[in-house]
Write a structure and sequence with these properties.
about 280 residues, alpha/beta, Rossmann fold, 7-stranded parallel β-sheet, two-stranded parallel sheet, 11 helices
């Protein structure tokens, strides 16, 4: 089965590529530098319709997610990918929103919403995977280190904030199911049900580490000070602002009716199982 995987060297695409190979498929990595990939690969330019059409032509399925970029650049990527799908008409497109909203509070479509709408209008078989927050955020040294060494899992959400957490490994399982079976279309929500609170996360870490771990709600600005040395002030600011917004919200829980659990029979890993699979 000819399957194209965008960003196959990154945090989202790499697990999808690996899961497809484990399932006996022979996917092709679509990346900026094909020399960095072992196995079939091709170089693409997300801002070139011609480049994307060449990649998609004849493909039975394509896995897509928008790379990190400025909002304007992501809009350009979304438009180019959408146009390439219309022109090349691959057999199936599976798009991950990567936890981003598809529209703003005033109803304006984001880049992710634009691409989801373009796929819906393309006439090509498609599915949109809609996660909330990735468990991999907890692996940053500023969070994992204190959890392992001090028994304190610190993260910038409230203690009473329920989240349908999901891992990149779970996303890969969902993506493989959707790439290889066209029977489910439209939005598929991805994440834990019931949702988890900070204490639930800490309990999973405690079971994995074999020692007590407690959750500590962290002020977004304090979290920002820790990640600035890693990402830079400009990149850290939108992240901090997103957590300020979360502090004003009741939670982030997926729609059960459109969940991977209900539509695909795929239940996300527990926190302990996720940590064990990664062997962190």
């Amino acid at each position: 089965m000819a399957i194209i995987v965008h960003g196959a060297t990154g945090a989202q695409g790499s697990p999808v590529l690996a899961a497809l190979r484990a399932a006996g498929h022979h996917p092709t990595a679509a990346v900026r530098d094909s020399t960095k990939v072992t196995g079939p690969a091709l170089s693409i330019d997300n801002d070139s319709v011609e480049s994307l059409v060449r990649a998609y032509a004849g493909a039975e399925a394509v896995f897509v997610h928008l790379p990190l970029a400025s909002p304007d650049q992501q809009v350009s990527y979304a438009q180019k990918i959408g146009e390439a799908v219309v022109q090349a008409r691959p057999g199936r497109v599976v798009f991950s929103t990567s936890g981003y909203p598809t529209e703003l509070r005033d109803g304006t479509l984001t880049a992710h919403g634009m691409l989801a709408a373009a796929l819906a209008e393309s006439g090509v078989s498609y599915a949109v995977i809609a996660p909330r927050i990735f468990l991999e955020n907890l692996l940053l040294p500023v969070t994992l280190g204190p959890a392992r060494e001090d028994g304190a899992l610190r993260y910038p959400i409230r203690d009473d904030y329920p989240v349908s957490w999901v891992s990149h490994l779970d996303m890969a399982d969902i993506a493989v199911a959707l790439l290889t079976d066209n029977s489910v279309t439209g939005v598929v929500t991805a994440g834990a049900l019931p949702p988890q609170f900070g204490a639930d996360l800490a309990e999973g870490f405690a079971r994995y580490f074999g020692k007590p771990v407690v959750f500590e709600a962290q002020e977004p600005e304090a979290y920002g000070e820790l990640i600035i040395p890693m990402f830079g002030a400009d990149a850290a600011r939108p992240v901090v602002d997103s957590y300020h917004f979360r502090w004003t919200q009741p939670g982030e829980v997926i729609d059960e009716e459109r969940s991977a659990q209900k539509l695909l029979g795929i239940t996300p890993r527990t926190v302990e199982a996720w940590l064990r699979d990664l062997a962190v």
